[in-house]
Specification:
Shape: rod-shaped
Distance between the termini: 81 Å
Strand order of the largest sheet: 1-2-3-5-4
Structural class: alpha+beta
Strand content: 25-35%
Helix content: 25-40%
Number of strands: 5
Radius of gyration: 32 Å
Order of helices and strands: HHEHEEEE
Oligomer: single chain
Number of helices: 3
């Protein structure tokens, strides 16, 4: 069907309509393969699961309680007195992880009162280089 015939068909269908009717033009339907339809439906779900936007999972971190001035050097039990002095001068409470000696700043340091220099397991939400602690357990 040529372009001119298509225009005539459209004009004829509009001309022959009564008021309130919707014109119907039968265009060939494009079939969507089932695999593509499933991919379009499942891909956003998988993306949300991978990025963690759907749920917030608590992480358990094992390590020593230290301060931001001493950091990984203070990751032992004999550091408790030094840590108390550093905290009184404005240092922040941190956890030095066991495996890689990563220093995590504690968002809510009141939870760690009485655990200065202790080896602990802290459960909470880790974001970048900080942790918001929900639960603390001595090891």
């Amino acid at each position: 069907m040529g372009r001119r015939n298509s225009y005539l068909l459209v004009l004829y269908s509009f001309y022959s309509l009564d008021v309130g009717e919707v014109p119907r033009i039968n265009l060939p339907k494009k079939e969507v393969p089932m695999k593509r339809a499933l991919l379009v439906c499942i891909a956003p779900c998988v993306f949300c699961l991978m990025t963690g936007t759907g749920w917030s999972a608590d992480t358990t971190v094992k390590g020593y309680v230290s301060d931001s001035m001493c950091g990984a050097k203070g990751a032992n039990e004999s550091h408790a007195d030094c840590m108390k002095k550093c905290l009184s001068t404005g240092a922040k409470a941190v956890i030095v992880t066991d495996g890689d000696q990563k220093v995590l700043t504690v968002d809510n340091p009141d939870v760690l009162k009485g655990h200065e220099g202790h080896h602990i397991a802290a459960s909470g939400e880790v974001k970048d280089d900080s942790i918001h602690i929900e639960n603390v357990k001595m090891l």
